[in-house]
Design a protein that fits this description.
Largest sheet: 5 strands, mixed
CATH topology: Cytidine Deaminase, domain 2
CATH class: Alpha Beta
Number of helices: 2
Order of helices and strands: EEHEHEEEE
Strand content: 25-35%
CATH superfamily: Cytidine Deaminase, domain 2
CATH architecture: 3-Layer(aba) Sandwich
Structural class: alpha/beta
Mean pLDDT: 87
Distance between the termini: 14 Å
Helix content: 10-25%
Shape: globular
Length: about 120
């Protein structure tokens, strides 16, 4: 299985801009999940609150990562592969829709399509 990767994108009608990317580093650190590394890198660049930004991931995030994405207030999450063991954005849980949380975000599974209807390639 390829390592988990995450990309933070600012999308606008004119263009999409990749702000931060991150890989998982769980071999070195049990908290080294790609989404957590992404949020930490964004915070280090002064982007702690990620309102209006999108995250693209290879696999569905786990519970811990889903909560981090909620707390950082992303707008949308796109992922390619479901995670049957601990997927928390649609497969086993749906953290992004819990009424108890003060922020919810949209989740898209499968191909990466943006609002302009263009296919976003994932390699």
């Amino acid at each position: 299985m390829p390592p988990q990767a995450a990309i933070l994108v600012r999308d606008s009608p004119e263009a999409s801009e990749i702000l931060v990317d991150a890989l998982e580093t769980v071999i070195k650190n049990p908290l080294g999940h790609a989404a957590l590394n992404l949020v930490a890198k964004a915070a280090g660049m002064g982007e702690y609150i990620l309102t209006g930004l999108e995250v693209y991931m290879y696999r569905e995030p786990c519970l811990m990562c889903s909560m981090a994405l909620s707390h950082s207030r992303i707008k949308r999450l796109f992922y390619l592969k479901k995670c049957g063991t601990d997927g928390s954005c649609g497969t086993r849980e749906s953290i992004h829709t819990l009424p108890a949380l003060n922020h919810r975000f949209q989740v898209f599974y499968g191909g990466f399509e943006d609002r302009r209807g263009e296919k976003r390639k994932a390699e």
